[in-house]
Amino acid sequence: MGVQTLAEDILKVSGLSVNYESSQGTVHALESVSIAIESRSLIAVVGESGSGKSTLGLAVIGLLPSPPAKDITGKVEYKGVNLLELDKESIRSYRGTEIAMIFQEPITSLNPVYKVGTQIEEAIRIRDARKTDTSKSENPRKNEAHERRDEVISSLKRVRIPDPENVADRYPFELSGGMRQRVMIAMALSQKPSLLIADEPTTALDVTTQAEVLKLMRNLMNEVDTSILLITHDLAVASQVADRVAVMYGGQIVEEAEVNELFSQPLHPYTNGLLSCIPTGSKKETRLKPILGNVLDLRETYAYCKFAPRCPFVKDKCWASKPDLKPSKGEHLVACFLYE
Amino acid sequence: MNEHHSLLETRDLKTYFALRGSILQKRRYVHAVDSVSITVDSGETVAVVGESGCGKTTLARSILLLTHPTAGAITFLAQEAVRSNKYYRDMQIVFQDPDSSLDPTMRIHDIIAEPLVGLSKLGKEEIDKKITQIMKEVGLGNDILGRIPRQLSGGQKQRVNIARAIITEPKLVVLDEPTSALDASVQAQILNLLLDLQTNHGLSYLIITHNISVAEYMSDRIYVMYAGKVVEQGPTAEVIKKPRHPYTIALLASAPIPDPKKRNLLTIDVTGEPPSAIDPPPGCRFNPRCPYAKQLCKVNEPSLDPISPNRFVACHFVNETA
Fold first, then answer.
1. Dihedral of the CA atoms A265, A270, B182, A105 (nearest 10)?
2. Closest by Cβ to B183, choosing from A49, A176, A282
3. Taking CB atoms and an 8 Å limit, are B186 and A287 in contact across chains?
């Protein structure tokens, strides 16, 4: 690595800003975020609550509720098309088929009164309907019900669900959390999207189940030819599965690098702070070094570095202007005056 | 036995929940805690780890008599546990979710004062003096005393919870997932605070957590629970370094470590889900998922036996995991 790679970017977000209207004023949730995802790679966006990581995911797939979201500016280019310029109807043809999303709580994403097989089948039916709509082939052969059923079973098999015939006929409440998340992944991938956005997909799961689901996602990436944007609060999870990692703070990306590079040579004081917050070893050996201070009030606008109030290395310059996210060496990007 | 009394001791503690069923059916029970014996010594931090549904929170609630144990014994301060003012002065709890454990309509001052009002005979002035002192200790300003929980951040709320728990000067504080709802940077602050308070007040902690790194960092001894049972126990450093029960091995292997050069998560192979606590499988409860399982494990339940003076493992084939 290090030199410019020519791999194709499936998604290119540039200068994306999002505000939320609230009763207590305008919240600046995202401020000029730029990020690119290469095809067949997994990028993890890591941040604490309020960092804007979920807003980023929702903005990419065009699911930001408006209101409260307003002033969505910048570009979200998917395979060269700026999704922000599309009307509601056109973006629908991307959602699900080209870009899919899974969430933290699979139980709230699944319809409780339909069997899971029926729900996956619906996704497949919609995909087929769209295909016949757009291709207008001369002989639009209707996909028979049993063929769809076979596809449901094979999509459940793909996510390593044991006894898929039986599981397809169960209701969501009859499945465990790990199984439900697999069903969500099966449904998302049934459309063979080129990009999967996974917002805290394993946060509600137990560690042994989390390990299985993450391993599954990583393996499916190559099988289905998908890129993954993984949104997580957990640096350890990111280190385990990601190719690249972006760290967010206060609605901005403060550091982005290849995963080994980021963990062996973290540059931004916030990234360093987050890493030293993770308990390792025993209290007898080391004392945790928490990041002092509190999270930002994003209703304010900041003319200085947003991390300055909590930064142990703060300089005069940090209070005078904002650092931009730029390459420090090769493809390791950081937004900090310490590296200028 | 007689000269040494642990601060807290449970013996074969069982907490079952009856399930509703028709009168024609046999009554069925959720075996949430099934014959659990643990001890906490004075000044010690003991962790109980396990995944959801393993019974760790029910164990905590049973020890505090918030849920009535079905059978077994709890001894605290050399006496049998009974609900009393004294019991709750000496043993307090900090719950996981700082939102649902604080009354949304009460002022912070009243929340922290409540245990003293209920459990002690102190007057208003003495209570206020104690509150001022405790606020300083947990790192909160007196200016928030007039606020209500909604006006505080998650970290501040958990500090209030801790202040409320230690204001009665308890001997033992049960910490039920004390940092699970918090961001990483706030978690570190709270863990440091808990360590400071332990040193200054000589507290003992019983930490219930699913987070292995929190358990490793905080505790002196550890109990690993699976499906209502303790499957392994011992000094934390030894158990983490060389787990011997196949479940502990799997649990530790699936805890993500922040190091991309050690991608343990993508190589481990634990499959399946924890069993139903209503009809646990016969024999060892881990046998359907266990890579070492043999015929014996499907029939006979292993007992928790010593493998060294202070380490216990419930596995028929513990010699194979060495």
1. -70
2. A49
3. no
Q: How far is it between the farthest Cα atoms of chain A? A: 74
- For B264-274, b where at least 16 C-beta lie within 10 A, e where not — what string? ebeebebeebb
Of A206, A235, A281, the CB nearest to B51: A206
Residue A125: per-residue pLDDT: 84
Say whether the ipTM exceeds 0.90: no
Partners of B279 in the β-ladder: none
Residues of A numbered 209-268 whose beta carbons fall under 8 angstroms of chain B's beta carbons: which are they?
A: 209-212, 214-215, 218, 233-237, 239-242, 259-260, 263-264
pLDDT in tens, chain B (322 residues): 445 789 999 999 999 998 877 677 777 888 899 999 999 999 999 999 998 888 999 999 999 999 999 999 999 999 999 999 999 999 999 998 888 889 999 999 999 999 998 888 888 999 999 999 999 999 999 999 999 999 998 889 999 999 999 999 999 999 999 998 888 888 999 999 999 999 999 999 999 999 999 999 999 999 999 999 999 999 999 999 999 999 999 999 888 888 898 887 777 666 777 777 788 888 999 998 898 999 999 999 999 999 999 999 999 999 988 7
Minimal Cα–Cα distance from B201 to chain A, Å?
A: 17
Q: Which of A93, A96, A57 is nearest to A232 (CA)?
A: A57
Neighbouring residues of B241: CB distance < 8 A, sequence distance ≥ 6:
none
Task: Please name the helix (run of DSSP H) or strand (run of DSSP E) that holds residue A207, with its range, or none.
Answer: helix A207-224
What's this model's pTM, rounded to 2 decimal places?
0.88
- In tens, the pLDDT along A189-203 reads 888 899 999 999 988
| Smallest CA–CA distance from A175 into chain B, residue | B273
Q: Record the tokens describing residue B230, joined without a space.
A: 């303790």
* Model pLDDT for residues A8-44, shown as the tens digit of each residue: 899 999 999 999 998 888 999 999 999 999 999 999 9
Q: Tell me yes or no: is domain A7-98+195-340 CATH 3.40.50.300.
A: yes
Residues 204-233 of B with CB under 8 A from A: 210, 212-214, 216-218
Query: In chain B, whose CA is at the least distance from the CA of A288?
Result: B188
The tokens for A323 are 């650092």
Contact between chains at B188 and A289 (C-beta distance less than 8 A)? yes
What is the sign, positive or negative, of the torsion defined by CA atoms of B234, B91, B211, B19? Answer: positive
Model pLDDT, residue A106: 83
- Supply φ then ψ for residue A295, to 5 degrees: -70, 155
Q: Provide the 10 A C-beta neighbour count for residue B203.
A: 21
Domain ranges of chain A: 7-98+195-340, 107-192
Chain B positions in Cβ-Cβ contact with residue A236 (cut-off 8 Å): 256-258
Residue showing tokens 């930490």:
B207
Closest partner residue to A279 among B154, B216, B271, by Cβ?
A: B216
Closest partner CB to A239 (pick from B186, B210, B259): B259
Number of cross-chain residue pairs from A and B with Cβ atoms under 8 Å apart: 126
